Amino acid sequence: MWTQHHLTLPPQRRGFHLITREVVAAVPELAKVRVGLLHVWIQHTSASLTVNENASPDVRRDFERYFNHAVPDGWPAFEHTLEGRDDMPAHIKASVLGPSLTLPVSAGRLALGTWQGIYLCEHRDDGGARRLVLTLQGEVGG
Amino acid sequence: MWTQHHLTLPPQRRGFHLITREVVAAVPELAKVRVGLLHVWIQHTSASLTVNENASPDVRRDFERYFNHAVPDGWPAFEHTLEGRDDMPAHIKASVLGPSLTLPVSAGRLALGTWQGIYLCEHRDDGGARRLVLTLQGEVGG
Amino acid sequence: MWTQHHLTLPPQRRGFHLITREVVAAVPELAKVRVGLLHVWIQHTSASLTVNENASPDVRRDFERYFNHAVPDGWPAFEHTLEGRDDMPAHIKASVLGPSLTLPVSAGRLALGTWQGIYLCEHRDDGGARRLVLTLQGEVGG
Question: What's the pLDDT tens digit per position in A33-60?
Fold first, then answer.
C-alpha cells in the first residue's frame, strides 16, 4: 500500500515545535498498516525536521539556544547576506538536522520510543507556513 | 516483502561503537532480497546512529572527542539540567547525527562502501540497553 | 516497482555541488512512478549528501566556509592524522550531513520544494570519483 498526503503547518515562531499529533492525524491510513514506513519531507531549505524528547519544553528551548550559538545570526564570514541575518544560519541548521524523517510503523502506529516526538525546527524569524509531504507505504493487515 | 525485527543492544560505554554485524545478524531475510532497503531506527533520544569508517578505532575515538567539544557537558546556557550534565548534550548530538539509517540492499547484502560501518552513538555516561527497530522491505529473487 | 542504479560522479573540488540533474537523469523509471520514494546512498565516509538552496552559488560557498570553521582541518585533538589534515574533519562532516537522502516522488517527479536541490558535499581536498547507489520504489501508474 502506498499513499501520499500534503500537510501545511501554520506559521510558527522561530524554535523547535512538537508536531507528532499533526503528522499522525494527516495520515489516517496509518491505522491499517501492519508493518511499514512513514516518510516525512519538508519542502523548504530554512526549516527542518528531527525527533527528540517529547515531554519537557525546556529541552526544545535548549535546542534553540544551542543551535543559535553553534550557527550565529550574522556570522561575519557569510557571503550570502541578502536575505537577512537569520537566512544563511537557517540553511545550515536545516542541513545539519535534515529535511526528512523515515519512521517505522508497527501494528497501525508509529513505532517510536516512549519519549520520542517529531519536531518542526523553524530556523527563520518569519518562516511562514511550512509544507510537508507525507508518504506512507507498508503491508496492510491485522 | 516486508519484515520487522526488534534488536536490543546491551549497554555500551559512552562513545561510538561498530554494530554492523549485530544489525545484519538480526535480519536473516536480508539474504533473500534482490533489491531493497533496510531501515534502522533507535527508540531513544540520547543515542543515535550513523555510518562511518569501519577500520580504525581511532576514528571512533575522534568522533567522541569532537562531539564532546562541539556540545560540551554542562554547557552553562542549558536550562534542562535536571537529568545530569550529559543529558542535554546527548539530546542535541542525537539530533545532529540522527535516529535512523536507511541502507540500500543489493543481491542479498547491504550495498555499503568498503569502509562503511554502522555506528551506535552512545551519548550518555550510563545509557543502558538500547532498542532498535529494523524494517526490511524489498523484492525477493535471485 | 523496485529498481536500483549506480552512478559514479567525477572528482569534484572540495565544497558543495548541485547534483539534482545527474541524479534524476540516472533513474529514468522515475517518470513512471505515481507515488514513491527515491533513496540515494553515497558509498564513502568522507563525502556526504544534503538538500539545500538550489539557486545561489554563494549559499554553497558559505556551507564550505561554515563547516571548515566548525570542524577545522588539523584540529590538534584529533588522533587519526595518518591520512591527512582534512581526513578526520571529512569523516565528521560526512556524519553530520549524512550518507543518504530519501526523496518523495509524486506523479513521475521528485516532490521537492521550489528552492530545493541535491548537494554532493565533497569534504576532501582530493576525494576522487564518488559512487552513489540509487534505489527507486513506488507505485506505477498515471
Answer: 999 999 999 999 999 999 999 999 999 9
Domain count, chain B: 1
Reference C94, options B98, B104, B134; nearest CA is B98
Identify the residue among B5, B37, B41, B82 best suited for mutation to test binding to A, counting A beta carbons within 10 A and taking the highest.
Answer: B41
CB contact under 8 A, C66 and A77: yes
**Assembly ipTM:** 0.98
- ∠ at Cα C82 (C80, C83), nearest 5°? 100
Distance CA A67, CA B61 (A): 24
In Å, how far from its chain's centre is CA A8? 12
What's the pTM? 0.98
For C16, the domain range is 2-140
Alpha carbon distances (Å) from C110 to A43, C38, C107, C135: 11, 8, 8, 13
Contact A75 C66 (CB under 8 A): yes
Distance (Å) of CA A128 to CA A14, A57, A95, A123, B96 = 10, 22, 19, 11, 24
